[in-house]
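User: Hey, quick favor. My workstation is busy. Could you predict this chain's structure for me?
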Amino acid sequence: MLVTGASRGIGAAVARLASSAGYAVAVGYHSDDAAAEKLLAELAGPGAAFKADVGSEAAVERMFTEIDNQFGRLDALVNNAGLLEGGSRVDQIDERRLRRVLDANVVGPFLCAREAVRRMSTAHGGNGGAIVNVSSAASRLGSAGEYVDYAASKGALDTLTIGLSLEVAGEGIRVNAVRPGFIKTDIHARGGDPERLARLTPAIPLGRPGEPEEVAEAVVWLLSAKASYVTGSFIDIAGGR
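Assistant: No problem, here it is.
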C-alpha cells in the first residue's frame, strides 16, 4: 500500500493501521525526513519511505518506479497528501496560492491514481486493487470566508472518485473516498490557525473533534475485502456536520 502524505496526522494513522493489518507500507512524504523515519520505526511490518512532491509528474513517476523496485507490486493507494493555506476570502487569494493548493490536492491525486491504475488494472495486466481518496467535509460545506480554494480542491477530488470508480470498476479496481471534518492533526496549525479546532468545536454536533485513528479505520475498511461491493462511495467522518 502507498499512503501519500503519510509522515503525520491521518496519513500516519492509516500507515500504522494498515501495517498492523498485514500490508507492506510505502510511506510517501513531502519533506520531513525525521517524521517519515519515526513512522517507519512504528510500523508493525515491512515498510519504506519515499520522498516526493506529488504535484510534480516527474517526482510521482520516480516514486512509483522506486516502489516497483522495492515491493514488486501495488495493491492499494491512499491519496492523502494535501495542503491547506491560511484563512482567506476568495477576493484575497492570489494565483500562487491557488496553484500550490491545486497542485497538491488535485494534480497530485490524479497523477498518483494514474500510476496506480497502470499497475493494478487488469486491463494493464495487473491483479486489481483499491484506491481511497482522503477528501474533506469542506467539499460539501464550502468553507466560506476561510479557504474556498481548499474546499474546491476537495470537490475536485470527489469528482475524481466518482469518475475513476466508473472507469475502472470492470478492471478489478475499487475507488472510494472518506470526507473527514475537524480532526486532531496539525493541518490547521500549519495553515496558520492553531486554535481553529478549539474555536469551532461547539459547531460539531457530536461535541468534539475526531481522531486520526477514526479516519484510518474507515480507510482501511474501504481497502479491505470486507468492502468488496463498495465503489464510488463516500464515508463522511465529520461528527455530524
